[in-house]
Amino acid sequence: xxxxxxxxxxxxxxxxxxxxxxxxxxxxxxxxxxxxxxxxxxxxxxxxxxxxxxxxxxxxxxxxxxxxxxxxxxxxxxxxxxxxxxxxxxxxxxxxxxxxxxxxxxxxxxxxxxxxxxxxxxxxxxxxxxxxxxxxxxxxxxxxxxxxxxxxxxxxxxxxxxxxxxxxxxxxxxxxxxxxxxxxxxxxxxxxxxxxxxxxxxxxxxxxxxxxxxxxxxxxxxxxxxxxxxxxxxxxxxxxxxxxxxxxxxxxxxxxxxxxxxxxxxxxxxxxxxxxxxxxxxxxxxxxxxxxxxxxxxxxxxxxxxxxxxxxxxxxxxxxxxxxxxxxxxxxxxxxxxxxxxxxxxxxxxxxxxxxxxx
Amino acid sequence: xxxxxxxxxxxxxxxxxxxxxxxxxxxxxxxxxxxxxxxxxxxxxxxxxxxxxxxxxxxxxxxxxxxxxxxxxxxxxxxxxxxxxxxxxxxxxxxxxxxxxxxxxxxxxxxxxxxxxxxxxxxxxxxxxxxxxxxxxxxxxxxxxxxxxxxxxxxxxxxxxxxxxxxxxxxxxxxxxxxxxxxxxxxxxxxxxxxxxxxxxxxxxxxxxxxxxxxxxxxxxxxxxxxxxxxxxxxxxxxxxxxxxxxxxxxxxxxxxxxxxxxxxxxxxxxxxxxxxxxxxxxx
Lengths: 359, 284
What we know:
The structure holds two protein chains of two kinds.
Chain A: H1 2-19, E1 30-36, H2 43-52, E2 55-61, H3 64-72, E3 80-81, H4 85-93, E4 127-140, E5 163-166, H5 169-179, H6 189-204, E6 208-212, H7 215-221, E7 227-231, H8 232-239, E8 245-248, E9 254-263, H9 270-281, H10 283-293, H11 300-314, H12 320-326, H13 330-333, E10 336-337, H14 344-358
Parallel strand pairs in A: 1-2, 1-3, 5-6, 5-7, 9-10
Antiparallel strand pairs in A: 3-9, 4-7, 4-8, 4-9
Chain B: H1 2-31, H2 42-45, H3 51-81, H4 84-95, H5 102-113, H6 118-125, H7 128-136, H8 149-173, H9 177-185, H10 190-219, H11 222-227, H12 235-244, H13 250-283
């Protein structure tokens, strides 16, 4: 019996060592990064590993909410994460992020001022912006009678059965709030309920063919739906497969978002994390990333150099119309707002309404 | 002898404890606790609002299970009657799709069923849609295949059918041939041999097949999202939303999971009791 017990203990130890990834190998420098899928030019990872000798464990999460859940349950053992604005606000409020030492991140100076001091990190203590972009409407020009300009299109019975609503309560309700002329960060229950009525009315009238996230690529590229709301960077990816698609930031305004790199409070490799952040914020890395994922970089140099970089890489001029969709000009951004972290009651209301919509 | 065996069983017991018992205990603990800690029944008080979702999930899972049984049983029965070569080939064909990831397979069904997908293009080419429009005086551009409950059931049947066929087949193939011969000798015709010998003896396979199809069907969320269009939530979606949705509410998620598990266990228990009764009746 004793022998068995010893065996079992040995097995359990072996198992824990496997699970924790053998923390004892000491010397090797590691950084654990968690980002979104298809959200980096992977060559950058190898380049960083070669230059610094730091091994990068690159993982992805499905959404801000999934990332939050991983962090809360302690399942995610990350150093660097790349959440969006409103989630950063929430993580800061819950004291989960570490203050950065910007002396170790000289490339932070290249980040444009308009991406600094934003509502989620007003004193620039926790974040280095990674990408930014807009939320808008993607439509198939061969399937609509006139160019789409307004959020009305997402609720209009004229296109019943041809509209794809986003499967994310925050974005879906934002479209309805904007269409009603309200602020996307409102905490006024009556306004949110009114937006919900608009959404559920359209759903009951059969406007929505489906509620989608990544399925949107296949459906819009294949001409299976006329109208969808999604992110600018993803529109550019779809456009490569279907030239009939167009993108608009509606006249009522929209959401513009910033995804930023942060270090977790209980990160084991803070120095390595800051080295990684500095590398990624550099102009070369930003250019490579922009070219790969089609999301605009907050690095001013990279943003300015991109058209030339494109010309050099592909031997043809960059379509400036597309460039302006990726990196929305100031007048477009003026009618857009960042999401802010909502108070818990409002989040619960969002969740309850969203469930009600699905029932 | 018995003692020795139990030594070998220790790793399995530990495995089960770590990965089955502990998680279930955690689900129960979470289900009865409030967000800030402390005992509460509030999570269950909200269950009434979700009755529609429960009903929809159980309905679709039941239909999918019934269809799997209707297809799976004859297939297993016929396979078992063929030669070994055919059986091997059939087995490979049944298993082959399972070498591919489940999500990929479901994703391909999307491109088949889409409004502008493979099937609708085929119907267009062969003039089926035009014919339908002529006969019924409609003006359809395509048949609505995807984003329906039917598509969800199709996805479940396609993905889980092997789990129905395999247990039934492995039971039928091991049937004692002499019992069938004895039945024949005693004057039973083919139908009676099937009804009174083969069917009752294959019931354990049928029961495990039903369990293996019904349980994953009732809790699926990927299939309903991809093929159902996400307009009508199923239990899996509802639970997922509590963990990965905007409002992180694992307590409510655990409560819904717990209620679902209890209902499933009760269903399985009733069914197995019914199964035992059948077998005993046959024995007598």
